[in-house]
Amino acid sequence: MVSESPRYFSRPLVIRGNSDEAEEQVESAAESLGWPCRGEIPADPDQGVPYEVQWMAGPALILHFVVDDLSNCSVMRISGDNPDFVESAAFLVKGSVDVYSFEELLDSAEISEDTEKSAQALMRASVGAPPEFSERLFGRIRSFLASGNPELQEAAIWATSFTPFPQYRPLLNEVLATQSDLHLRETAMSVLEAYDHEGVQEQ
């Protein structure tokens, strides 16, 4: 079992297909690049640990394949100590795996009659978001919170957790102040506590 946490991570890339198909794509890409498998981390839902496989992408570089159960998607990213080397390795493997663009993820994150599909689409867009704040994603999250549908509202709250930004804190505080649903308030509180732990304060 592997547990080291290098300092720098590339942006998560959401992979098309179900988890088995996505893993096969990443495994094939790693093999074609000559990157040996480093190990597998079994899922432990009770501890919040997702299923993960790692490959050595170079000296002190790791390719991560992770199945995110919350958003029902599979992602890959590179980690390492040197940001330039990390991004170079991410560029190499990206060309061999069928991934969504952020624009595609955003376009699919629309409120529809299929609330489960809409909820997962919003969370996938947040998982695959760039490190910079996105006004479009912010707008999607705000509209889901205003929908009045508890499933969509919960998805919006979790969507703020994947890439924390100060701009999301007022939305979460509003949930605490106005939401009658105890579960939604507790979810927002847990996300805000994570923000506090990471030092993400309101602007």
Rg is 17 Å
Euclidean distance between termini CA atoms: 40 Å
- Low-confidence segments, given as residue ranges, are none
Total count of helical runs of at least 4 residues: 8
Name the helicity range: 40-55%
Summary keywords:
6-stranded antiparallel sheet; alpha+beta; globular; 17% strand; 203 residues; 8 helices; 6 strands
Q: Would you kindly provide a written description of the structure presented here, covering whatever features stand out?
A:
It is globular, with a radius of gyration of 17 Å. Helix 4 packs parallel to helix 6, helix 5 runs antiparallel to helix 6 and helix 7 runs antiparallel to helix 8. Strand 4 and strand 5 form a beta hairpin. 48% of the residues lie in helices and 17% in strands. The N and C termini lie far apart (40 Å). The relative contact order is 0.12. It is an alpha+beta fold and 203 residues long. It contains eight helices and six strands, in the order ββαββββααααααα. Strands 1, 2, 3, 4, 5 and 6 form a six-stranded antiparallel beta sheet that branches.
